[in-house]
Amino acid sequence: MKKGTIDPIESFKKETEIRIKEQGKNKEINKAAHEFLVHSAKSNYSYNFKWMGRPIIQYPQDMVAMQEIIWELKPDLIIETGIAHGGSLIYYASLLELIGKGSVLGIDIDIRAHNKKEIEKHPMAKRIKMIQGSSVSEEVVKQVKVHAKGKKVVLVALDSNHTHDHVLKELEMYSPFVTKNSYLVVFDTLIEDMPKGFYPDRSWGIGNNPMSAVKEFLKTNKGFEVQRDIDDKLLISVSKSGYLKRIK
User: What range does the domain containing 35 cover?
Assistant: First the structure.
């Protein structure tokens, strides 16, 4: 490229950064995004999507964000607590398959037989390992250490029990696995911003959820930083303030 000419790739990147910052400040669009989250959560909107045949139970916006992170980092290991139908495990594994390296480790206290069967027979199963047990038990964490040993780039996603105490314990136990410049992603921080009594049949709610746990964790752990630019970009996300980057 000749001196003085504008690099179109860099130009587009800067335009995008400016647009994202403006979105973050736009009260009207943020209000609309929040209203959509509230109403769509009532109808279990996130249960409508699949990835390569398996229910993923996530908002598409968060999955695009995860794709961007995974493509940039090219992790050797992705650890996820909470398996459900296995869609997100398969999603992450398929991205690693495209990259050409890496594995996914899923942890759940109850891996239901029918879901386990579908995951194990899936074409992406070759990149997936699963552990059944409480994500915050010492025995399970010992097994995770074995899988993480020697891995240069490790990404962690937390999406199991959503109570404050459980997520805080996960943050404390799994944050050491996250390598510098990688991410610790905490799902369902949106619970804090839902209307009072939104989860009548659950043990979590306002003041007792992943968001409250993140805030408590960050009070004493200065190695992680919330990536506000991701929040401003997505607008519709179950993980607002939950994209934590390891900065040291």
Answer: 15-197+205-246
